[in-house]
Amino acid sequence: MSKPFFRLLTELSSRKWVSQLTGAFARSKASRMFISRFAQTYGIRIEDAEKHVKEYRSLNDFFTRSLKPGLRPIHEDLTRVVSPVDAMITGIGDIKEGLIVNVKGQDYTIEELLNRSPRTVNYKNGFYFVLYLSPTDYHRIHSPITGDILEKEHVLGKVYPVNEFGLRHMKRVLSRNERLITFIQHEAGEVAVVKVGALNVSSIQYVKPLPKTLERGQELAYFEFGSTVVLLFEDDMFEPRADLMLGSKVKMGEDLGRFLDKK
């Protein structure tokens, strides 16, 4: 079958009501019977989960599970930014005049990604990561920095897949999909944490209560099924770890890079 045909099938299935139906089933008691099969299919380490697998009330309850304490240590150096999620890096680099270049062959504007926020100007020549969470990964999202929440926005949108096919063959899915955007102010500068919904993701949820000030590694939100986090750093704020590249896998709490000294 041709790529246009697959793209058409994806367009037809990527409706919010489809994800809502999937989400409703995943939250139902009936979905409990699929937890063990789901974990086996995706190679999920059930021994890392905070609770025994039989204690989870639904597939969604298991999917949004917390981990046992200590399994994701936060990097001790306070000058370092930490990964907010367990993920694969599918995009990394400098923002060039407001443009993220060549994420799986496509370019994105910061203006579009941030829903034309006035804060767009802060990131015109900053730095970005695109972090993809597969179904295998731990799906809670943590703060990459210590700082105050300046602003948050829920952007309604599509639920296209954000896997290899979606990023490469669907039109600019990161800026067309539903997004939850959080702007956080650190003493070194501003960071935008853009949580991007995806196919079969019924919602992206903030933790409750959501504090006004976050510590590095503190829980911020969670995905119901796999998706992507885009991290945006303000101009002249951040330098990435030298060994990170496309395809690198990172764990929540792991060092991503350092804050730059202000001149």
UniProtKB/TrEMBL annotation:
A molecular function (GO) term: phosphatidylserine decarboxylase activity
Protein name in UniProt: phosphatidylserine decarboxylase
InterPro entries: PS_Dcarbxylase, PSD-B
Entry EC number(s): 4.1.1.65
Record keyword rRNA-binding present: no
Name of encoding gene: asd
Organism: Paenibacillus alba
Source species taxonomy: Bacteria, Bacillati, Bacillota, Bacilli, Bacillales
Cofactor(s) listed in the protein's UniProt record: pyruvate
Keyword Lipid biosynthesis set for record: yes
Protein keywords: Decarboxylase, Lipid biosynthesis, Lipid metabolism, Lyase, Phospholipid biosynthesis, Phospholipid metabolism, Pyruvate, Zymogen
Pathway info: Lipid metabolism; Phospholipid metabolism; phosphatidylethanolamine biosynthesis
Group of enzyme by EC: lyase
NCBIfam families, alphabetized: PS_decarb
